[in-house]
Each structure stands twice: as C-alpha cells, then as structure tokens.
Design brief:
By secondary structure, the chain is an alpha/beta fold. The protein has helices at about 1-30, 70-85, 105-115, 130-135, 140-150; strands spanning about 35-40, 45-50, 50-55, 60-65, 90-95, 125. A four-stranded mixed β-sheet has the order 3-4-5-6, sandwiched between helices. Strands 1-2 form a two-stranded antiparallel ribbon. Helix 3 (about 105-115) links the parallel strand 5 (about 90-95) and strand 6.
Length: about 150
C-alpha cells in the first residue's frame, strides 16, 4: 500500500513540476511550448513520449521534466528516442527538479551511452534553478532556444 501511495505522490509531484515549468516559460514567452509529443513504432509496438516541446526553425526541442532521481530512466528514454526519430531534426532536453540534483550525473550517463551506441541525438541537461535564474536575461524565443541547446 505504501508503494501505491508513493507512486501516486510521485505522479502528482511530476505533474506539478510540469505545470511549474510551463508557467515559468509562459510567464516570459507566450505560445512557445507546443506540448507533449509521442513517438510510436507500430511494428515493434513501442511508444515513448516527452513532457513538452518547442518547435524552432527546422528543429524540435524535446523536453523531459525529471521530478525524481531518474538518470537511468532518462538514458533509456534517450536510447528509444534515438532509434525512433531522425536525430538531425531534434534536440533532447532534460530538466531536473530533484532538490540538489547534480546534473553531471545525467550528462555522464548520456555521454557514455551516446558514445558506446554511436547515437547522434543532441542533448542538454539543466536543473530548474539554472533555468529560473537565466530566464529573465533572455530576450526572445531565439535566446531561449540557444540557451536550452547549450
């Protein structure tokens, strides 16, 4: 029973953090976020989604909000996305909300797996505090995209 309760709490917490991210971005840039994106491979019966996205010129930024300590799951998500999309048209962005989370952990995991498996999907990793402290300095959507792409 505790596991069910914890799972429910984590799902609510994740939804709250997704709303906080949307609110943060929308407070500065309206109509930038395009919402959740889902990718499917019907033959394999595989489906993977990201929490939000930004379309900019010929690229789509795929944004995943991490509310827990989930570096391993993010690596799996990255691997699936890499196999299901044209990597030249996308950029994977992870935004950690976990208190005091060291983003280097996720970076090291993604660096390792992308090199080991020769994956070419570009990625950036942030803590929400980093985005919060920089957003006021950004002038427009172009500045936001440049910041998020690293």
């Amino acid at each position: 029973m505790n596991n069910e309760k914890d799972n429910f709490h984590n799902k609510n917490h994740a939804a709250d953090n997704e709303k906080k991210f949307i609110s943060l971005i929308d407070s500065k840039f309206s109509n930038v976020l395009m919402g959740k994106k889902t990718f499917k491979n019907k033959i394999a019966g595989v489906k993977i989604s990201v929490d939000n996205s930004i379309l900019y010129q010929d690229k789509t930024l795929l944004i995943e909000i991490d509310s827990g300590n989930m570096a391993k799951l993010l690596v799996g998500q990255y691997c699936l996305l890499s196999q299901m999309i044209d990597s030249s048209k996308y950029h994977f962005i992870v935004i950690h909300f976990y208190k005091d989370y060291n983003t280097e952990r996720t970076k090291k995991n993604l660096d390792y797996i992308s090199k080991k498996l020769n994956l070419h999907l570009p990625y950036s990793i942030f803590h929400i505090n980093e985005i919060s402290s920089h957003i006021s300095k950004l002038k427009n959507k172009n500045g936001l995209v440049k910041f998020l792409k690293g």
